[in-house]
Amino acid sequence: MKRSKKLEKELAVLNVKNKEAQKSSVVTKTLLEKVISEISGVPLVRISSNIFTQINNLQSVLDNQIFGQTEANTEITKALKRAYAGVSLVNGPIASFLLLGPTGVGKTELVKVLTKELYGDPNKYLLKLDMSEFREKHQMSRLLGAPAGYVGYDDAPQLTEFLRKKPYSVILFDEIEKGHPENLNILLQMLEEGKITDARGNTVSCEHTLIFLTSNLGKNQLNKFASKIGFSSLTEQSEQNYQSIKEQVMEEITKRIKPEILGRISSKIVFRPIDKKVLTKIIEKELGILQSHLLKQGKTISFTNDSVNNLVEQAGENFEYGAREIKTLLANTIQNQLAQFILESPRVRNIQVKSNKKNIVIERKSA
Questions:
Q1: Single pTM value for the model
Q2: In terms of domains, do 177 and 320 share one?
Q3: Of 101, 164, 186, 233, which is the most buried if we count CB atoms within 10 A?
Q4: Side-chain half-sphere CA neighbours of 135 within 13 A
């Protein structure tokens, strides 16, 4: 009798396991999309989402994450709409962009946001090439491979190998003015023919690729302009000055980059220096991220208007780095204090950040 009951229990367990196995073996739409993505190299987001819907919503996505650069967001959106609608006359990659402007205004951040929106994880689908690492002509062998008999011949070419595995991706040539002029010739074949050949003779397509070039050329003029207007709003006169500086930046770039390369780029965009309004939005965004992190721990944190204004004033003391130093500023003024406060008062659930003259103060929020 006991043996019979034991066998019945074992049979019941086996039946449950069998049902679970059958469920896991069912081919679903999600599973199929994932397998296709892994085999083809096409991002999952491109398979599971409607690209036309994504492109139509792209302007608002960029405006909500890249503050103060409406012109840049609009130019990029227009170029991508032309490409995906099939009315672009470019035979190379989907589109190519030259982003100009001082450091810390959102050039690289825009590329990351765009990659995430159209392809997925930037860590996976964005190849960032720091052109300061290609100051010498021979260093280009890292991207296309070394000729037979040379050191590095057995190493996989960085650029072509990436494109072979991820044909739908984004390539960022960062700070192109720092690279050897001859090394930029790699762009000619990519922009003109939509493909590239490595040292071993292997040709890979970049027809489904977005190409970005960034440069800090003209940053001195733009930083000088930013320091003059300070935190004030743009007037009609200052807007005219900006347009004049924009023309100077374009003149400078034509002296440094070959016209045959510039002529093949879809759009050339000069980013605006950031002002107080933009700095405030960026800081509020970062503070919102901090609030979300603490909420996961069961804690709330609020910021008084004075504390936010204090942070904005500190961030605006040095226009040279734009918004690049904001994370460091928040770490030094808030996060260090906050960490100490939480460790000393782990039971406190409601926290407030306020300003006491020039100092940031963290305390328990009163009911």
A1: 0.81
A2: no
A3: 101
A4: 3
